[in-house]
Amino acid sequence: MRYLITGATGFVGGHLAEACVRREQTLSAIVRSSSDVGALEKLGAILYRGELSDPNLVRQAVTEADVVVHCAARVGDWGPIDEYRRVNVDCLRILLEACKGLGLSRFIHMSSLGVYPMRNHDGTKETEPLPKSHHDAYSQSKVEAEHLAMHYYKEFGVPVVILRPGFVYGPRDKTVMPRIIDGLRKGRLRYPGGGHGALNTIYVENLVDAVFLAAQGDKAVGEAFNLTDGEFVSKRKFIEAVANAMDLPHPHLTPPLWLAWIVTWFSEKMAKMKGAKEAPLFNFTRLKFMGYSLDFSIEKAMLDLGYRPRVNFEEAIGETMDWYKKNNQ
Length: 329
Hints:
By secondary structure, the chain is of the alpha/beta class. 44% of the residues lie in helices and 14% in strands. Helix 6 (176-185) links the parallel strand 8 and strand 9 (201-203).
């Protein structure tokens, strides 16, 4: 099969690209001209250099693919919604337009469990309605992107599969894990509500396995799938495992969730009034991550895709933290 990956120079896309080569699949990627593509060149990937906003480049790339895996996205916990829509919705539309009528085997859209409402979750399934609006622009744009992808499936027959991973972690993550380590070093991490709720973890290699199952499964097209490691890992357990590995102190502050919500609301309000370019220390994305229990059912992925998380938490966090220690993070 010929796999085209967007976001292949990133964390998830990079691991997926390596897995394609291990599985002897033909690998191609759309990469920005400014991106470091050394790893992809070593893998022998066919590279289409340019922007996802360029319809001609995108059309050229997708016509040479059997499976498109769309990992590229703007991520973050702050910024105007239009900036997130430009990447997460408008570029997706260009990709989907180019895929119309091509006879692709799959178009796998990498979404997020962040599309669900900001509340405690206890085995939430894919039947849960998605909210019309979110506090943060990233989650809002991902909901809109899912609606767009399903529209192209229903109206034009593009073989869309939506994957909703939780918090993806593993070696080479240069976004979230470094922030956790930095927060531990500076004593900024807290456990709103106590930290005993679930963290929706998924090890990057387990997510990669799910991508290939989605590319092959007969029941995948036109469906969305929650993806986690299927193992209860509390916020305390995860954060303290990172702290122990890096020889850093454990967080100890446990403000009540209602108080954390009020402080976060005022913090974001003041930051927006001041036109802050960076996220305030207390924001709703971080509150969701650290404060709410995030337990989601993966029963559908197990039944319809045959998904079985291959790497358990102890092994995964060990491999992850070994990489960060070796790379002086």
